[in-house]
Amino acid sequence: MAVAGVTPATVLNDAQEQVLEILVEHQQELMRAATDSILAELPAYAGNPDGQLAAEIGQQVSAHISAFVVCARSGVAPGSDGLPFIGETVDRRIDQGIPAEQILAAYRVGHRVLWEIVEEASERVGADEGVMASLALPMMRYIEAAWSEVAKSYIRAERRLAADLDRGQSRLVEALIDGRAASKGVRLQAGSFPVDAQQTYLVLVLHGFPDHAAASLRTAARRLADAPEIRASVVHVRDDDLISLVALERGESSAASAVIAREMRSALAKLGCAPALGVGMPARGPEQVREGYREAVAAATAAGSGRTLALEQMTLVDRLTVMLASGAVPERLIADRVRAFIQDDLRKGGQLISTLREYAACDLNARRAAEALFVHRNTVLYRLQRVTELTGLDPHLLPQLLDLITAARLVQGIGGDEQPEPIRA
To answer: Which of the four CATH numbers 1.10.287, 3.30.420, 1.10.20, 1.10.490 does domain 14-161 have?
Structure first.
């Protein structure tokens, strides 16, 4: 593309040529000036630990000066083959951890400094305003070509990073749902995703979505990490299922489970598709992720197209119904708070559990339960209130009472020993 004011391959007057010669002869000085400006104005560059960064900036500035001089002398704006250093530099800066906005800002600073140097060189040779104007036009063309190459290079780098991220996340999720949590490679694949014995996770499975929705659903699952209840989310597609492993910000998982169901259903509605969505019980540490995945698959299968089943939002009896054929570990279906209550009460003799059972046997009649236990009715009511305080479940409601009694039987069975019948008093 010819540049107005500078005809191809020759017609530079003496003043124009002198300006360009100054740029060539004083490259080292110009490199230092541009490098100092970038480091002074851009915190991500100034604070970067890479000891080679300053030298690399100087080399980049030098390459830009040389390319601009060629552009001005030829009257032709450079194409991609004339600016190979831009793509290499964008890739390098991303690998050095410099944010995109700071990379773009560095180019703005560099181009500003280059023009300031052109102005200074013009003043040195006593060039008039016409010379400046004639050099401004190739400068504008050059900057336009450089910015176009920066944009294309950044898009290519983003695609590469996205592909690397997908592969890394897929390997991580595969390892954990297949029960390879202890593998040395797991932490290498995890990157910034927390893999820790103290971390709580939830696994969600989307089943039966159209192929064209896969990329958007991956993005939606990753964006779960924007919610305050969620620390991070990684995604993998296996066969017809999208699997997301979600690390929770806090130990309380019930709210996070509700957020996952709400956000994913919202994303599905926008895409106009209605797959089944299942969310497993909380996994405490990476070793339990395999069970969480099995539960999420069973929940999605039981839910059916367009519906959601989050096990933690269900009663224990309903969870057992869903998981009956899956071979799930029964203890995992019991909420942590409920299991802790049962274990503690059994260690103390089982008084509260005995009261629950008698209350159920007496058709939720506190007076008759008190008579059977040889205590005052107010004692029964007090004990039931304590159960609510300790578990969050209300034994006055039949479904929740049934959950408590079922959980107690499961915990006693899991423990392996018959618990003695508590004293009725």
So the answer is: 1.10.490
